[in-house]
Amino acid sequence: MSKSKGNVITPMEFLKEFGSDGVRYWAANVRPGGDGIFDVGEIKVGRRLAIKMLNAAKFALMQAEPRGPITEPLDRGMLSSLSTLVRESTEQFEAYDYSKVLEQSERFFWSFCDDYLELVKGRRYGDFTPEGAASANSAMLVALSTLLRLFAPFLPFVTDEVWSWWQAGSVHNAKWPTPQEVVEPIGGHDANAVHVFEQTRAALGEIRRIKALDKRPVKAVIERAVLPQRFESLTPAAQDFRAAAHIRDLGFGPTEEPQLTFAAIEPVPEPRV
Hints:
It is a single chain. The chain has 273 residues and is mostly helical. The chain has ten helices and three strands. Strands 2-1-3 form a three-stranded mixed β-sheet, covered by helices on one side. α10 (238-245) links the parallel β1 and β2 (247-253). α1 crosses α2, α2 (20-28) packs across α3 and α4 (73-94) crosses α9. The radius of gyration is 22 Å and the shape is globular.
């Protein structure tokens, strides 16, 4: 941009339309020493990320009881994975590679929303046991606190707003998270739970893919699902997986692709005259 040529773009109209967090998101994606191409589409992505953070926080906070020990494999695996993200982000910030921190944090956050929250939604609502609900609630609050602090340098306004909903002071005065802090409630990093978490996420992705190819709704009920044996390690989280994928009967067998038998669609009764 050149002032003499008159092609300078001021950010005011974009700040008004998409918010400061969206514009800051675009700027933070420019790597240190790199040239940034002005991209309104990327600003829109930042705004969408901020809105998603508001919605995810509302879900986590609207029913934060009961709380208790974090015992479920998916909860333990999610927090162990989050602790790895915190460690890597801290190292990258110390190396001034802030755009890499944003990239990895954003990838984790979208997976957290699309996979983890969907997998534990039924258990969190108390569909199974009070202990299972308490485990999910406690894990969600640890994750929310950590993610808000990770995103605070990039989305300062939305993170501070969400922080004020349930914490005193400002997120910008809070301590930077540590890997030890994240896994302290589960007694340390749980590698086995991470494996269960990753396998369950991968299997859920396969079910979603098949439903999409078959042009079936996400909530289409599966009467019987036989997954390849490589997914058998998700068994400790089978209850959460079946609820999220809407599977009535789950098994594993020597097959390359998941074999799904969908439930018959009940006919809609004719209205009475």
